[in-house]
Structures are given as C-alpha cells and as structure tokens.
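Reminder to self: tokens first, then the designed residues, so the page reads top to bottom the way the pipeline ran.
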C-alpha cells in the first residue's frame, strides 16, 4: 500500500452514534485531530448517508461500512447507487460473487471496495456455531485469497490475522482493522483486539477506533494520542 502523506489518515474514527447531529458534534469536537470517519449501519439508517458528501466536501475521508451482501445484480446496482456520495471506502462481505459484483458496480470512479472476512466479534466457537468448518484464522486467509483474486482493494480483518492476510494479498492492497483499543481501554464486544502501536508495527494500514474516542471526555486528545502512537 502506498505510504500515506498524512499520518492522521491511518486512524478511522467510527461514528457509531444514533443521529447525524451527534456525529457532526463529534467531528467538530475532534477537529483536525482526525481526517477519516466511519459511517456504519446505525448512523447510515438514521440519515447518515447524507453526511457522506458533506464530510467529503470538508476535506475529510469517509469509510462507508455497509457490509453489502446479496445476489450479484443487487450488490452491483447498490454499489453503483453509492458511487457519487464521495466515500473513500465501501465494505462488502467477502463472498466471491458479492466481491465481483461490487467491483463491477463501483466502476472507475467509485469508492475502493473492502472485503470483510470474519467479524472481529467472532472467535472459533462463534464460527463453528454459524456452521463454518474452518477455524477463524483459516477462514480469514481463504477469504483474503479470494478477495485478491476478485480484484478487491483491501481487506477488513482483525489484527490477529493481519500478518497472514498480508502474505496472501501482497503490499498493493490495504488492510483495515477494527477492534483496535488503546492500552487500558475496555475490549467491549470485540474478541480479537490489539493496540494502535502494535497494529502499525505489523503493517496494518488503517485502524478503526470507536468508543475509546467517541465516549471519551476529550475525544480530540484521545485521537491525537492514537495517531502519535502509530508514527
């Protein structure tokens, strides 16, 4: 992955809040300490899609985390409908048909497509309960290889699998990692976590951090500390 010009771009702040007003308030409080924001289901379904072009127009980047997965035509047309919003990243689930459809839908000027391998709230027991025969690490590696074959721009995986994923996808594709927690922060519902500094040392390109920043008394200071830890 090409070296980033601005180290703040490595931190993606998850705007996992219930209203656009709350999200805009957080962006204002964080100020220039962060440049990249994630909009997921909760905010997107509460009007957050309209926030994407506003953030992009202000010079910020947006990770639209919708984890699309459906029949190929539906995914393709869904991605095509999102291309003009100005998002930098868009997620789909790492199923071969879904990934190929997303690449077709985004065309030449749409967002970079990231494939979600296995959710960071899953461990081997959760995967087995869902009916997968492979343990998480093997399932992630298999899906990463399929993503590379499909032409996907990057992989979303936990830090625990990042080195194995890098070996499968090479250096030209991004690795984006949720479940990142500063030292001393609670893991919450994440089961495969790592600190920002450790994530950067093993070659992760972008880290996604939500509650440790958004629920902090001083979210700007926490964001600054995470960026500094990754330098």
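Designed residues (231 positions):
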């Amino acid at each position: 992955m090409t070296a980033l010009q601005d180290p703040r771009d490595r931190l993606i702040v998850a705007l996992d809040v219930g209203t656009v007003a709350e999200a805009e308030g957080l962006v204002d409080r964080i100020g220039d300490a962060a440049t990249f924001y994630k909009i997921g289901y909760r905010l997107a379904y509460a009007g957050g899609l309209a926030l994407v072009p506003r953030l992009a127009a202000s010079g910020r980047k947006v990770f639209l985390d919708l984890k699309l997965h459906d029949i190929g035509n539906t995914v393709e047309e869904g991605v095509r409908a999102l291309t003009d919003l100005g998002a930098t990243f868009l997620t789909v689930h790492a199923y071969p048909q879904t990934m190929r459809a997303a690449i077709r839908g985004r065309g030449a000027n749409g967002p970079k497509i990231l494939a979600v391998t296995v959710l960071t709230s899953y461990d081997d027991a959760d995967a087995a309960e869902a009916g997968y025969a492979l343990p998480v690490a093997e399932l992630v590696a298999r899906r990463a290889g399929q993503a590379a074959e499909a032409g996907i721009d990057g992989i979303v995986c936990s830090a625990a699998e990042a080195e194995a994923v890098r070996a499968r996808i090479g250096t030209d594709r991004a690795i984006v990692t949720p479940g990142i927690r500063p030292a001393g922060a609670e893991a919450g519902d994440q089961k495969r976590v790592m600190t920002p500094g450790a994530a950067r040392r093993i070659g992760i390109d972008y880290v996604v951090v939500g509650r440790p920043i958004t629920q902090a008394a001083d979210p700007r200071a926490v964001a600054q500390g995470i960026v500094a830890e990754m330098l």
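The radius of gyration is 17 Å.
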